[in-house]
Amino acid sequence: MAKFVCGLATVVMLANGFVTASAQEPPARVTILSDAFGKESTLQRSWGFAALIEYNGKRILFDTGGQKKAFVHNTKAMSIDLRALDFVVLSHRHGDHTAGVAHLLDVNPKVRIFAPLETGSFGSPASGPVLMSVRRTVEGAPVDLLYFGKSPPEQVAIDAPWPDANITLVDKPIEVLPGFYLFKTVSEQKGTLELNEVSMAIKTPKGLVVVVGCSHPGIEKILAEATKIDTKIYTVVGGLHLVDKTDQQVTDVVSNFQSKWNLERVAAGHCTGPFAQLELRRVFKDLHDHSGLGAVIDLPR
Fold this sequence. Notes:
Strand content: 15-25%
Helix content: 10-25%
Oligomer: single chain
Number of helices: 8
Number of strands: 14
C-alpha cells in the first residue's frame, strides 16, 4: 500500500528521520524523494528519480534525482538524514539520476556508493578500442601526434565527476548486505546501446523487491536477471522506461508482469509514462502502488 507525505507541515510531525513505524520495529518502506509526478505538495517536482529504501534496519539511497536544488529541498522537507545511510546506489550515469551526488557528498563525504562498471564512467578506466588506439604506434607519425608521446600508459585513467567519492563499481552480482543484492544489466536498446545499469533486489518473506532506476536494458531483462537471485519477485519499484514504447508493447509488458513474472504488486515511477500507469492500474487494481513524488510504499516484513 502506498501512502503520501503532503508537505512540510505533515513531515515535521514525523520526527527522527521520517519514521512512521513503531519504536519497536524498524520501517519497511520505499520513500520517493525525486520524480516529476505525484500529488500536490510543498515538494519540488523534477525530471529524474531518487528513493530512500528502509528495510531490516538498513537505509539505502537509490539515485539522487535530476536537479540538485529539488533534491536538497525534498530531502530537507522530508527530514531525510543523508548522514545515516548504509550505502548509495547510482543506477546509471545519466544526469537525471546523479544530480544530487554533489550535495550528498557535502553532507556525507565517506558514504559507500555503488555504480555500474562501464568504460570511462564513474572512474573506470578506458578500455577496448580507446585503449588500443592510445597504445598504437603509427609508422611515420611524429611524436607530437602520438597519444602520450612515446610512453603510452598501461591503463588510461578517467576520474569520476567526484574523484574523492568512495565508489565501488559493480560488474557481477553482489550481496552488499545480508538480503540486499546489486546486479548489472546492459542495454541493447536504440539510443542507450551498451549502457550499463545497476538494479537492486531485496529479499523479503513474500519474494524479491526489485528497485530500478530507468530500466534502459528493458524491465523484463532486469526481471530475468533478478530471478537468478530468487525465482519469486514480489514487486518492482522505480522507472520502467515504457514511456517511449507503443501502446501495444506497454500492454504486453504489463500483461507479462502477471502471467510470466507473477508479480503481486508494482510501484512504477519516473520514465514509466501515464499510459503504462493506467495499464498497471487496470491489471493490478488495488495492488498498483501509486509512487509519485512523496509517496511511501510499504514493503512486506
